[in-house]
Amino acid sequence: MNTPVALEPLYELDDAQLDARIEAAKEKLGESCVILGHHYQREEVYKFADLTGDSLKLARLASQRPNAKHIVFCGVHFMAEVADILSSPEQIAILPDLNAGCSMADMADLPAVEECWKQLATVIDPEASVTPITYVNSAADLKAFCGDHNGTVCTSSNAEHILTWAFDQREKVLFFPDQHLGRNASAKLGVPLEKMVVWDPNEEMGGLTAEQIKEAKVILWHGFCSVHQMFQPQHIDMWRERIPGVNVMCHPECSYEVCQKADALGSTEGIQAAVRAGAPGSKWVIGTELNLVNRLKHEMPDKEIHFLSPSICMCSTMFRIDPQHLCWTLENLLEGHVVNPITVPAREAASAKIALERMLAIV
Ligand code: 13P
Ligand code: SF4
Predict the structure, then answer these.
(1) What is the whole-number distance in angstroms between the Cα of residue 288 and the centre of ligand 1?
(2) Looking at residue 7, what is its pLDDT?
(3) Where is iminosuccinate annotated to bind (predicted)?
(4) Which residues surround ligand 2 with Cβ inside 6 Å?
(5) What are the angstrom distances between the C-alpha of 201 and each of 107, 154, 207, 222, 255?
(6) For a surface tag, which of 141, 281, 313, 314 has the fewest beta carbons within 10 Å of its beta carbon?
(7) For residue 353, is it within any domain?
């Protein structure tokens, strides 16, 4: 093993030098390393990804490069955890910067969800009547909770399928941490808003009455994405006035009011595919993270593409992965050092895998 490569000096390189170092390290590592990139990654990092996608696609891809001993995940922490859970035991998932978390994922934790389950049990029998579904944007121990309680995981691209499955299993769903995805997908399936209640983990009984819990079909956790909550219904009105006939497409982490006004909803992969399939000259307004929208604009100059919000909505944690951290990660692998491995404890990983494999079998 050689001396570890230091991160700080990499900040003294110019863009071209840094690119050349990343390219050279990638070349030397060959098939032993695969770089996965989420669509929200900044361009300087995204361009080095071997495989790109939304959370569902990346979860599938994580297990499909068996020759890659190292999976370098340019995304956020929960994504690297999924890669660790779904890949073979010999493979190692790496997150180039451990500060790349997801603030929404942090809005639900295992003790709070267990407490919710316990409190629900004072009113209904959750084991018999509630299917827990965690959005993939959550810690591995919450996926394990779902695995242990006959529940599953969903992503923004399969939430409706997963909810349909869940309603076939039991009467009610407990959906965490993103209330908006849960509400938007349930509404698409025809669940009336009055059958959805919001569980506030800071309140006794989630701030709900026993009657409200008994009447509810969907119990939504009080979580949200701080990036997507910046989009407002009046932004859509403004664009429709400015560009008659414009196609408005939003990510389902946006609020119900925004999603109701949009022409279509889609995961990051779904948004990308829809715009790519649009006719030359077609006009689009997109409600999701800025890096993806800018990339689509750049890729398709023959289309008119706008960002929904007048203010900048960027995912600051996705942005933590910069080319310097990518270079540092790859060059350390060449020196025999694995920086920032993401290892989910075995028992937790086994239960989380049940929940994730259940999801992958449904869609
Ligand atoms: P996608 O699964 O659509 O890529 O979404 C992930 C995410 O974190 C959106 O904020
Ligand atoms: Fe999490 Fe929102 Fe960032 Fe997606 S955009 S990773 S939900 S904070």
Answers:
(1) 9
(2) 98
(3) 38, 55, 135-137, 156, 251-253, 268
(4) 76, 102-104, 137, 225, 227, 253, 289, 315, 317-318
(5) 9, 21, 8, 7, 20
(6) 281
(7) no
